[in-house]
Amino acid sequence: MNQKRKKQLMWQVPFLLLLIIGTILIIRQQRSMPYQTDKGGIFGTFYTVTYQSEKNFQKEIEAELMKVDSALSMFNEHSIISRINRGNGGEANKMFMDVFNKALEVSEETDGAFDITVAPLVNAWGFGFKNGETPTRQQVDSIRRFIGWKKVTAEGMNIKKSDRRVMLDCSAIAKGYGVDMVAQLLKSKGITNYMVEIGGEVITSGINPRRVPWRIAVIKPTDDTLSVNNDRQAVLNVTDKAMATSGNYRRFYYKGGKRYAHTIDPKTGYPVQHNILSATVLAADCTTADAYATSFMVMGLEKAKAILEKHPELIAYIIYNDKDNNSAVWFTPSLKDKIEE
């Protein structure tokens, strides 16, 4: 080895040692950094946010969630969506438009199975602001005249309705969007290990407090109007993914010996009667996962499979009743190695 090469190595060794020592210190610091867990109420449900940070960000988290509420909550009379529902349309903001555009995108992809104008039908069947009498065929047909995702459009930030009676309802996508907004907030703080959950919709990143990938449970879909059942159907070993579940096992009622589920088919105007019990969707963001989970409940298993074949970026775990009325499971092949029974 020549003298010049020896001198180069002598200069490089201290830098390599500093790099190694620095890396070790960073790893030790990350391992010793605590996890925060914040809980509270939002959107008529509850949230839990667990994240690795020396500082607590609950005030910022709740402020972000209130921004979503002020844009999308039908139960907030001062929200943007409430103002739009009271008139022929109106000016929106970026949060509202993010959700509105995603909703129309999924409506297009699912041939209208996802529809944010379906609220009047949901209310008519007793699942919204009030529980009423079972609607007649004439009442359903009358309401269907102002139902349809193509009856609402956007010009810039301005929302226009083709019929004043059109009512927008983003409840099938707003929780997922809220999850995404909290995740973005945590990322902006330099946080890489976190789990955000709002009413069962979840997004994860990095590792959990036990320093392993996040594990997310899929709840067994048994009749549970009081939301007390937490029996697990399966546990999914996934991280850096968003997950949303839609099901009819918690919101339904019996009348005249017949079971009415809360998922309404916008095309027929009636509660869905197919064999899916719950649809769990994993995607890069929770807004997308939330919308497609609802869509699959409307579409049924075979149509959902067709959508999933067209969109390989989506992952699904669907629980349904087979031809013998026994509970069965179907999932996308990419999920096979990530399931714990």
Secondary-structure map:
Elements: H1 3-32, E1 35-42, E2 45-52, H2 58-72, H3 80-86, E3 89-91, H4 94-109, H5 119-124, H6 137-144, E4 152-155, E5 158-161, H7 174-188, E6 194-198, E7 201-205, E8 215-219, E9 232-237, E10 242-247, E11 252-255, E12 258-261, E13 276-283, H8 286-299, H9 301-310, E14 315-321, E15 327-331, E16 339-340
Antiparallel strand pairs: 1-2, 2-6, 3-5, 4-5, 6-7, 7-10, 8-9, 9-16, 10-13, 11-12, 13-14, 14-15
Q: Describe it for me?
A:
The protein is of the alpha+beta class and 341 residues long. The longest helix is centred in the N-terminal third of the chain and has 30 residues, at 3-32. The chain is 35% helix and 25% strand. Helix 2 (58-72) packs antiparallel against helix 7, helix 4 packs parallel to helix 8 and helix 8 packs antiparallel against helix 9. The protein is globular and about 65 Å long. The protein has 9 helices and 16 strands.
Structural key phrases:
8-stranded antiparallel beta sheet; 3-stranded antiparallel beta sheet; single chain; alpha+beta; 341 residues; 9 helices; 16 strands
Number of helices: 9
Strand content of the residues, in percent? 15-25%
Q: What is the oligomer described by this structure?
A: single chain
The SS-based structural class is alpha+beta
- How many DSSP-defined strands? 16
Compute the average pLDDT. 86
Compute the CA-based radius of gyration: 24 Å
The largest sheet, given as strand count, sense and whether it forms a barrel, is: 8 strands, antiparallel
* Low-confidence runs of at least 5 consecutive residues: 22-29, 224-228, 251-260
N-end to C-end Cα span: 60 Å
